[in-house]
Amino acid sequence: MAAKETDLLEEMDLSSVECLNQATGKDWGNALKQGYREDAGLFCASDDDEQLIITIPFRQIVYLSSIAIQGPADGTAPKVVKIFVNKPNLSFDNCAKKATEQLTLTADQVTNGEQLELDFTQFQNVRVVSIFVDSNQGGGDVTNVSKIIINGAPVHTTNMSELKKC
């Protein structure tokens, strides 16, 4: 029986999230943390150019089923997003490699925060997910992400040390 799929916010290790190229005062917490991500006036913004890498570790192994990435309708919302699994030290140099999945978001999808299905076979046994925002809707130098919701479920494993001999 499959576990019930839900928002994996409670499974995220928020104390260990990293974001590369975020603007000061407009960090990843605005897009991920409960309460902040519901406020349309708050967002995670890129700093030097349109690219961002948000690396999210989980407290336990999970599988991912869908993702929603939301941004404003002013052309600064993400367009091309690459998702990498179990690459905890992802850098901008590594992002040219083949991603686990690449999404090209339409303006409607990103403005509405539409949940997009992920290839289930590629998103099992996930310890860390890295989201690389490659470009934005308007082609400008700043990308704004107002909300990220990742759906899935924990992968229940057997603790071998708890098994008793027969």
What count of domains describes the coordinates?
A: 1
Poorly predicted parts: none
Describe the largest sheet: 8 strands, antiparallel
Supply the number of helical segments.
2
Q: Could you give the order of the helices and strands? A: EEHEEEEHEEEE
Main attributes?
mainly beta, 166 residues, two-stranded antiparallel ribbon, Jelly Rolls, 2 helices
Description:
- By secondary structure, the chain is mostly beta strands.
- The protein is 6% helix and 34% strand.
- The strands form two sheets. Strands 1, 2, 4, 5, 6, 7, 8 and 10 form an eight-stranded antiparallel sheet that branches. A two-stranded antiparallel ribbon has the order 3-9.
- The longest helix is centred in the middle third of the chain and has 6 residues, at 107-112.
- It starts with 5 loop residues before the first strand and ends in a 12-residue tail after the last strand.
- The mean pLDDT is 92.
Question: Could you outline the blueprint of secondary structure elements for this entry?
Answer:
Layout: E1 6-7, E2 18-20, H1 29-32, E3 44-45, E4 52-70, E5 80-85, E6 101-104, H2 107-112, E7 116-117, E8 126-133, E9 144-145, E10 147-154
Antiparallel strand pairs: 1-10, 2-4, 3-9, 4-7, 4-8, 4-10, 5-6, 5-8
